[in-house]
Amino acid sequence: MLAAVGGLRGLRLARIFRGSPGAHGVAATRPIAPLRPRGLTRYCSGRAASGSEPQGPAGKVHRVPAEYKPSQFDKKILVWTGRFKALEDIPPRIPPEMIDAARNKARVKACYIMIGLTIIACFAVIVSAKRAAERHESLTSWNLAKKAKWREEAALAAQAKAK
Fold first, then answer.
1. pLDDT by residue (tens digit) across 57-109?
2. 74: closest CA among 102, 97, 95, 113?
3. 143 alpha carbon, distance to own chain's centre
4. CB contact at 8 A, 62 and 42
């Protein structure tokens, strides 16, 4: 078992130090650049491009312009979440990150409101159930009364058919 593990370790080290076929000496042991996950976009910080800064493959600096035109609902969300004081203060175009942050904040506020309303409704149901218990009302008594009424109606219908 140990011989097999040692053999595997030896193979792994050989692959690391050997490098690509035909590589010799220092080139075979050069450091490997860290891999960046694909699909993640990188945005410019907005600074002016200079010759020393890295640029994209075509020499362009990519940045996100404020190219989102908010709808009336988006404007109400921006005001409700506190980004702007009034609807008139909102510029015609805003960055997408701003509206995303406002939507997330509005979503959290709405969840808190629903949690509060749910707790209030629970207490209302508890109070109404206690009042119904004081009046000796229950679902069982309602069900028995309803079935007794149906039996009476069925008996009256049967008597009417018999005549």
1. 555 555 556 688 999 999 999 999 999 999 999 999 999 999 999 999 999 99
2. 102
3. 44
4. yes
Q: Where are the alpha helices (DSSP H) in 31-138?
A: 72-80, 96-134
Query: 21 — alpha (psi -120 to 50), left (phi > 0) or beta?
Result: beta
Asked whether the beta carbons of 47 and 76 are under 8 A apart, the reply is no
Distance CA(119)–CA(126), nearest Å, equals 11
Overall pTM > 0.70:
no
Phi and psi of 94, rounded to 5°? -130, 160
* Residue keyed to tokens 């908010």: 70
Q: Are 76 and 87 in contact (CB under 8 A)?
A: yes
Closest CA to 103 of 74, 61, 140: 74
